[in-house]
Specification:
- The protein has about 290 residues and is α/β, with parallel strands linked by helices.
- The chain contains seven helices and six strands.
- Helix 5 links the parallel strand 4 and strand 5.
Length: about 290
């Protein structure tokens, strides 16, 4: 049996419960999300630094192949990447902050191989697109610009695939060259984005890029020196080095572990893409 005291207690509890629910409802109306969930983590940001090896036009430079190469880093790793450049400078007899160009490193002293070996750090991913200029030498309509822009189209495809795979976004920085003007690059990029002309069929996901391609110099953007070393290693593998044009694969093999690889682990068509495919050297499938 309940006493009057019990009834009084239950009545107060009932009123308190009503007030609790009423207060909660008022809170919900006036402060609909008093304890918001934490914001989703920001997408990781990657930066691709691009440089070239060889000339895109004709054989005036004595090279059969033209290459564009990209070295990609995580933007959060800049301090560690700078340390790698400083280590290369130290091991090749340079001073801190010196400008590094692969062609100025002495192959005879092992400096080029030393630099290439440092590019196998897991701080980096590398990808290059190579064009066989001899495939178009009999075409009067094929120009330097056709080669350059077709190669950069294929490279941008691969950069967008990487950013998609990693769930991040990508900034692209291109080393300035005399033949490349910002106006020409912007015009080509606009054509790519709109899918017009020779760019029809490109498989670039533009949503992953933070903005238009940016042009800079190795003096102003230190990490472009990484792209110079990587693409020069590619150039030595396809065009050779020195006056004798001796094919040298050792630099590329030294950094092969960090080449961009496809679903089956192959660098062919991903880390090293050769156009046209029939011109692809046999070593590409083995590296």
């Amino acid at each position: 049996m309940y006493s009057e005291d019990d009834e009084e207690w239950y009545q107060r509890a009932y009123e308190e419960e009503l007030w609790f629910h009423l207060y909660g409802e008022l809170e919900r109306v006036h402060n609909p999300n008093p304890n918001p969930s934490p914001a989703p983590p920001a997408k990781p940001k990657f930066i691709a630094y691009i440089d070239e090896s060889g000339s895109a036009g004709g054989k005036a430079d004595g090279n059969q192949f033209f290459a564009l190469g990209a070295t990609i880093i995580n933007a959060s790793s800049k301090d560690a990447v700078h340390d790698v450049l400083e280590l290369i400078r130290k091991r090749t007899g340079r001073r801190s902050g010196d400008l590094l160009h692969f062609k100025n490193l002495k192959a005879s002293k092992g400096h080029r191989l030393s630099a290439a070996s440092e590019l196998q750090s897991k701080l980096f991913i590398h990808s290059a697109v190579i064009s066989d200029k001899s495939a178009h030498e009999n075409s009067a309509s094929w120009t330097h610009d056709h080669t350059y822009y077709w190669v950069i189209t294929l490279l941008m495809e691969r950069l967008s695939w990487m950013a998609e795979l990693w769930g991040g976004e990508m900034e692209v920085v291109l080393a300035h060259k005399r033949h490349m003007t910002r106006a020409k690059l912007k015009q080509h990029e606009t054509r790519l984005r709109n899918g017009r002309g020779a760019a029809v069929g490109n498989r670039i996901n533009w949503d992953v890029f933070t903005g238009p391609i940016r042009i800079s110099t190795p003096q102003d953007t230190e990490f472009l020196q990484l792209a110079d070393m990587f693409v020069s290693a590619v150039g030595a593998a396809v065009n050779g080095e020195g006056q004798s044009r001796t094919i040298n694969l050792q630099y590329l093999k030294a950094l092969a572990a960090q080449l961009y690889r496809g679903p089956r682990g192959a660098a062919s068509a991903y880390g090293i893409k050769v156009h046209p495919s029939k011109s692809c050297p046999s070593w590409v499938s083995q590296i």
